[in-house]
Amino acid sequence: MSTLNWIGKEAVVNYYQQVPFHFLKDMPELACGNPGVGNLIEQGDNLVALKALLSYYYGQVKCILIDSPYNTGNESLVYNDNVSSPIIREWLVDCRIFPHLKIKNNKLPL
Prior knowledge:
Elements: H1 9-13, H2 46-57, H3 86-94, H4 97-107
Helix pairs in contact: 2-4
């Protein structure tokens, strides 16, 4: 199996451990549809939200949608799913999305 290695990888991979845990806050006034059907929308920083989901939904999650960074000031940002590209690898590190993916893949298994 291939691995992605770079200088400082350990700091990035373990970054999520430094993010403080937050409890989820229920806001019924923003809800729609039938309550209790098992759907949830979490708004906030992706990494903080994913960490909050761990204690509630570990091993029960069927789908996670993480929005890509926007309003970065980079007008030439084009989304590309070719993760073998060195440009995409650098972007994953620069935007610190790697810790988000680590939690999604290892802490909330589908």
